[in-house]
Amino acid sequence: MVTYRQGGAEDQVGRRDRPVPMDFAGTALSSQSKTLRIDVEVLNRMMNLVGELVLTRNQILQCSQGTDNVLELARRLSSVTSDLRESVMQVRMQPVGHLFGKFPKMVRDLGETCGRKVRIEFEGQDTGLDKSLIEAVRDPLTHAVRNAVDHGIEPPEVRIKAGKAAEGVVRLRAFQRSGSVVIEVIEVIDDGAGISTERVMATAIERGLVTAEHAASMTQREALQLIFVPGFLTAKQVTSVSGRGVGMDVVRANVQRVGGSVEVESGVGLGTTLRMRVPLTLAIVPALVVGSGGQSFALPQACLSELVYVPGRDAETAIERIGTAELYRLREGLLPLVWLDRLLALKQSESAKKRGLYIAGIEAGGRRFGLVVDDLKTPEEIFVKPLSTALREIGIFSGSTLLGNGSLALILDTAAIGARAGVRPVPEADAMIGESFELPAQASERRIELKDSMVIYETKSHGTAETSHSEQMAMPLSTVERIELVPMSEVEYVDGNAVLQYGGELLPLEDEDGVLLEMEAAQVAMVTVLICLRNEERSAKRVGLVVRRVLDVSAGTPLARKATWSEAELVLVKGRATCVNRKFGLRFGEAVVPLQEVA
Amino acid sequence: MSSLDATGVDPVDTLLMCSLRAGAALFGLETTQIREVLGATKIRLVPLAPEYIDGIMPYRGDVLTTVNLRVLLGLQRCAAASCVIVLDDDINEERFGLVVDGVGGVIVMARSGVEPNPSALDARSLALFDGICRTELGLMVRLNSQRLRPSRLAENGLFGAAARDRSGKQR
Fold first, then answer.
1. Mutation to test the A interface, candidates B42, B44, B63, B86, most A Cβ within 10 Å
2. Which of A29, A79, A394, B20 is the most buried (most CB within 10 A)?
3. CA separation for the pair A547, A570 (Å, rounded)
């Protein structure tokens, strides 16, 4: 065993009161402390920005009499604020390496206890993660590494027999992946024995977690996910290291609590990969503000899969009832409905009901349901403020936030709402995570039916104003992140190219059909922009596509491709031939779908 | 404090009590526990919250839970403008708002003038009150931020259960 010389006397003291000795002094400190080490550069920049902020405030105070340059001041305030927010976020970002520091020693110690030869490797220690999230994934990650050593890696003699090196490898890999929300992915990969799905199923049946018939109908991947079910345990014997009943369900619960997800991949004899995905930060959450019973609530967009509007006259027929359950037929499936105003005992607004129903499709905590609200308001980036314990105990609100108009809104905990309303979790295989890891060949067919929806929009018109007929185009819904209505005045030009300031970044606008010119000529105040994700190598970039107007979101039937339209891909949408815009990459069944990623 | 010294009162033995009213009774809170007295403030309702909680309000970058003293005393909520006192509970590091009818002046009194709660009080009053003292304005009930904090009120169950029974009728 390696001895530690660098620690010296301090290390000795450390060992006495800590059950798990830490590897480096730095990690030992960072594991508990509430302090941060900050780059002075970042601090200077923040100080500068705060100065700017004060300056702008003074100007606003002075100009409160005249209204001439308020707009300019507001713009400046907005840019200073977003810069400041970015720097503050940067301060909170800590390298993931802090988290990895203690593992080499832990793995060696564990290896010795369990009689395994194990080496640990790291990748991507420098990627940043919010301080609070680092704390949140610490325990699940420790658990996963313990599992990898104890259950994953085989004893040396078994490994040699299997034709592998005597020394097993546990690899920790951290990287960021950007969809519409940047997420951090941490993988624990071992090259051990892998998880036998037969054994998993046998154990699950034995413990009464699934029935034999159900197990028989499961796919390999579904069976593998059983290890996350509470009460699951395959360890043959209880050791000091693992098999103590605190299992993968706790790991998953911990990661889900911070809005992440856990998946497992395994091949018998090849090894296991445990993949945790967590958002980069918790403090600022993109949300949709909804109204119900005269109050505003914030709905985190991470759990929002789609929005459906049912006009008042269709409301009665669109909702089907089975017993007390109310269901809405959404495409091929039935969506259980939860009325927010009834659930919260708010006064029910009849006028809103007459106007129509807004159904927010929610996927959270393995549940899928439609949340019925009276009104959809603005999408906003909200800053989460915690609630006092007395209010947290209600169990339906995860926090509160100040909205742009200065009023307070409660943030809805969608998973808890689903549970409170009695919505049953859907089987794991159908839930939001995971699809990305099926083999592409199998996945492609399913994806076509699931995600073949497209945004249908109107593009260039031919002929004169009276006799014009427009052409309709379709953009795969998976590429479109958002549809925004932008005032023409906000479109700016750089070097003759149209750009738009969008959420703190400069968005290039694509306007092939000259919609902008046309709109300007017609003196239209607002222009519709599809915010699309252009997939490149590894990252995705946002691009705005200017369109005349959005017509519909619906599915299309692919038409046979004619040789004459060499490039164009045609689909039939509600009886009209429509050309599919594939400019931003992504074909069906290919790559990861960002909309899905949000969930 | 220096002015008190001049009047010959021992500062260690004096209490500075901020008087406040809820219903007919007079209450007092030690000024050290009060962070700020706000006027009428817009409070956002929280659905399904215990009855004694008025709602939440923004306060200097935080969101405070407000407790309604009238409801705690078993009185009807007052529709007229009320006053919010921001209280700090240093021991539990909890900050919250207390909604009262109105705030009066600060009363200086001797610490020894506060007598323990009379045993004749009901359980809810015993849990809320922190002694009684005699002032020029009449009997004053001493309150304590530690006893009023929302999480404690939720814990002891005296108010939570009753609140849920009444919630249907009042709201």
1. B63
2. B20
3. 19
